[in-house]
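Sample 3 of the quickstart, ligand 5-amino-5-deoxy-1-O-phosphono-D-mannitol:
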Amino acid sequence: MCGIVGYVGSEQAAPILLDGLARLEYRGYDSAGVAVYSQRTGTLSVHKAKGRLQVLSDLLQGGAAVEGTVGIGHTRWATHGAPSDVNSHPQVSQGGKIAVVHNGIIENYAELKSFLMDKGVTFVSETDTEVVAQLIEYFYDGDLLQAVGRVLHRIQGAYALGILCADVPDQLIAVRKDSPLILGYGEGCSFLASDVTAILRHTREVGYMEDGEIAVLTREGIQCYNHLMQPIQKEIFHVDWEIDAAEKGGYEHFMFKEIMEQPEALRRCVFPRIREGEVYFEGFGLTEDYIRSIGKIYIVACGSSYHVGMVGKYNLERLTRIPVEVALASEFRYMDPIVDEHTLVMVISQSGETLDTMAALREARRLGGRILSIVNVVGSSIARESDEVLYTWAGPEIAVATTKAYSTQMALIDLLALYFARVLGTVEEENYRSALKEMLLLPAKMESVLEDRDDIQYFASQYFNHNSVFYIGRNVDYALGLEGSLKLKEISYIHSEAYASGELKHGTISLVEDGTLVVALATCGRLFEKAMSNVVEVKSRGADVLALTTKSHREEMARTANAVITIPDTHELLLPSLGVVPLQLFAYYVALMRGCDIDKPRNLAKSVTVE
Ligand code: M6R
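Result:
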């Protein structure tokens, strides 16, 4: 979704803004713009361009063509009004005084627009954001903060706003409600951004804005106010992510880099959480008594995080015997969910900012559930609003297609399942021990899967021109298929579906004909024979079968499937963690061969902050 950067300091603002925007490109966008105030000429200059950020950067000679040490920048992901220069942000008020960048949606913009038009204000764009700029100017009588406060009382919806006023050019104003915005504290300068990666080169000291807060940024520092305009003190966090972690480091794509980083991410996520042969969560607030009182677990998430929840359901129920329901966060609010004080609601989100997931969290809390979140981005909104947080420690994930976040989320759910089962006495000692032993071996086994990537590249070269691909599997292999299918469709634009194998004959098998590519997932040993029957079933209708199974079943599978990818044998709980890697690689190589924009697939955003 949209990206915001703001800077006030003593250096030239435009290059800093463009660099920050480049680091937010992964969020997805279709146009970009900056507004910079020049103290020398006393003018506010606004530059915008549809398309890639490079277009804007070339126009501004990397920022060198724009003078001024205070400014705001934006990458826009169109919601109201098509991508165009005029609809890009910053949006500027009629009098040219107020420039605004915005992430989110102003729901009552139409009503406010007609109110302003009745007062004689002329609009130039189709955006909801222009209403904010015009309304600030309408209320502005020399006190910018007060004008912003009056606007906030009138606008409804979700917003992160960066505001620059030509009359007070030594400050920026930032506002947040339901859209992420962080503050950066520098030496003689201050920053504003949608995500820390945008400002990491300049400062590691950040503050996370809460809903309803307003911040005034100057060269001397940042003053924050609550929704009643009372001054507040914000906690400052030190970010210890390495800058390299947010850069490509010689890899052609972030996605490939992040796939390759998975063993290391798992080591960071898992190793500190196994101590002396037991699962250990430092400072964990769920007591043994509470765990015994859990009547039901709800897992709520979107996209790939939801797919982790699907595997999590199988693993949690098998080990703990607690009923687990998995819900799409976008549906949760509208399904009248049954949640009470005995319901543990597990919220999974890489970004910690997905709006639907956040809304589901709030609904679950309202209904009395206890919230345990699994999040990658430290200090993100979902992390802050949860009762308990387990961080995945995967490091910054930039590619839109998630990989290392998925793997670490999965590892945390597995650790939780083992931990709960141990408390409840529902896991046998031997099973518990062997699962933990295998968890410690998981990164090395994953490395061996990654070493075999040439085979997967070869299979991709055989199948990259298919128009439609089916992923089939049972139980955890079905959940794994959902993720493999999503990976393929989101970055290669090939139509793809995942089916529980047993469902094929209830309709979908009619689509299988000569040459249809079916990716058959058969990692789950106890269901291998069933998986084989489905392979035979689709083969006999002419399908090309690319199978995924474990080393111990390779030979048998190779007798029927056209091609076989193998993963090492491991504890059943962990098979999806290994199985997902070849599926990620397959999607990556297919997209590469089709010449797709792998890190920034069309129409998609990394962090989905609108409903
Ligand atoms: O940040 P989140 O985990 O809440 O994001 C959820 C989905 O938007 C995300 O997993 C999406 O499906 C990915 N692009 C899939 O690769």
